Amino acid sequence: MAELLRLLLRVAEKAANVARVCRQEAPLFQLLVQEKTGDDKNKKFVQDFKTLADVVIQEVIRHDVGAQFPEMVGFIHGEESNKFENGLGESVTVTVCGTEAETATLLATVLDGDDTAASLLAKAIHQDPTTIDANTDGLTVPLSPSELGIWIDPIDATSQYIEGKEEVLEEGHLSPSGLHCALVLIGVYLRSTGEPVMGVINQPFNYKDPAGGRWRGKHFWGVSCGDINVCSVSRPKDGPVGKLSAVLSSSEKQVVKEALTSLCEPNKLIYASGAGYKILCVIQGLADVYVLSEGSTFKWDSCAPHALLRALGGGMVDLTKCLQSSSGAPDHQTELTYHQPRTECQGADRWANHGGLVAYRDCSQLRSIMGCLKGKL
Fold it and tell me: Is the dihedral of CA 59, 62, 67, 68 positive or negative?
């Protein structure tokens, strides 16, 4: 498991490099921000570059994990399909090839012969990142890769990634929007139970290097398996103090906002973009809880950060199930799991967190949230 964690940290950094290259290299940036429709849309251009950037990142992770752990190949799931069809009816499957030149040739067929853009992207795909310092020495977890599955969200908060606002992250403060909300998420779960046991979060746009003006990232990781709970983020030394702080989506139901106002101080009801970033805010202690009443997140959004929360003594529950539970406390019935689709649903909806969710670091705070929302939803 330590070997798998080191690999995931490395491939997440490689994925982050791809995300940064797409914004920093002019030929790729132009493709990223332009979106033509109707008569202006190039019929040979396969879907849009935003989707391709997502898919390339996903396939980099899938390729590298599958190469080192072939027993996991059939259980590496992502948000995106890697099959494209252009306006001429030609089908292209995006994969990472054996060499940089072969990958560039494949990408050129997707990018309507734009060899410059294809070469830049292929170079980022095949470039190994510098060593990631994760302090995983001595970490042993009694699990085999054949027992595990993976969920990938290649770029969570894609709209923030495309818009590209360059907000400055203030230490100890949550920022509502900007490039820093865009995250690479890789979550590992047990195939038998669906429990999240390992998570890697890479924030490609954490800060700008003053020397060269290039973006630098930051990574977070956690392992939670049985008695083993290890996280790159420190647990808070003290228990909950004072009123709660909650992070929400700006589109959250008014009844939820009003109910939470009774628990939170006026300036402690905070809004932010991206499901992954909102959960990361809870992991970092920038907010106590993240509450979402809609079924608008998916397994790839929540699996990685859920593992970190578990390693910190918290977790993530299905809001609807928890409200229906007599105890209002987390248990194996209410915690989110990641191994079974909802067979009555179609497409991506099969993997939605349909009952909404609450991400928390402390069980007492979860009980407070459930108490104030009971009978309101």
Answer: positive
